[in-house]
Amino acid sequence: MNYRQLLIILLLIVFFTGCSQKDNESNDKSIPVKIFLVRSESISQYIHVTGTVEADEDVILYSKVADRVKSVNVFPGQAVTENQVLVEQENSILYQGMEIANAAMKSAESQAKLAAADFERMSKLFSEKAISQQQYDQARLAYETAEHALVQAKSMYEQAKEQYENSYIKAPFDGIVAALFVEKNQTIGFGQPVVQIVSPSKMKAKVYLTGDDIYNVKIGQKVVIKFPTIPDKKYEGRVSKINTAIDKTSKSLEVEIVLLTRDKNVKSGIFGEYFIEVKHNPNSLVVPELALLPQTEIKIDRTTGLQSTLKKYFIFVIENNRAKLKEVKTGIANDGQVEITAGLNPGDSVIVVGQNIVKEGQTVIVIE
Prior knowledge:
Elements: H1 3-28, E1 31-37, E2 39-55, E3 58-62, E4 67-72, E5 79-80, E6 85-89, H2 92-127, H3 133-165, E7 168-170, E8 175-180, E9 187-188, E10 193-198, E11 203-209, E12 222-227, E13 230-242, E14 253-259, E15 271-288, E16 293-300, E17 307-319, E18 322-334, E19 337-342, E20 349-353, E21 364-366
């Protein structure tokens, strides 16, 4: 071996020794990480849907009389009781008409009583053959005419009374004035909307489910409700009714949710988000979802040649100050948290910051 060959061999030895040292230095270099201690927690799976709230009782009252608004006795947001007068229309002429009809009815009642008594007397005389058939027929006709007149007079009075009472727009149930559509001295026509009344004692929402969600919902399931217009506040609800049939056109199922939390800020027509709890595990190992390191395996069937994919999940834990990669099985995922059904134990230190750069067996430093 000449001098030149020996020099080349020495240079190669130095080069590979340096590379080996760099690799060792890289492997021995400690990586700062943050951890999450695995513990037992509760976790739920939800179906997320949206919809508007409506009162269980929600009505718009319409005018039944075409006349001027005499008085408005309520304001929006006011609590009212059943039969309370909300709005009164001009009714002096209607009152006079009712009084005239009442007087006519009383007169007809008196005439009917006289005719009945006369007919009874004439019937007795006719049975004794003391009067003629013609006299009897005249008494009977007078009685029947008086009775018919009384029926008509009563009908006229009831109509006049109803018209008069219709000038008073009353609350059909205990509730809240949701909206007023008229004001004092305004002339309104027949059938015009006057006031809207809702019952806040029972607010509900109708939502629509599709796909597999249809088969996961049950009556009585807990619902977490959020309203964008009422931030930082959650409301409790329950699934109260499920339609028996799926809509053929939309392929959706109507579900009714009743609110259990009463709040004056939750008004009919407000838009909300509804999280129906379809599964709840009270004691599960739960970790932040960002700790998961997914890997997809591609498998080819040797017989058919068909290709399939299998998704696996791994998590880095710390053992003896070194990173160790573990395969895990996952369950429910919700709100950035995921249930681990296999692969971890309570108390394991899961790397949640630095997991994407650390390597198997590499030493780590836990930072706060």
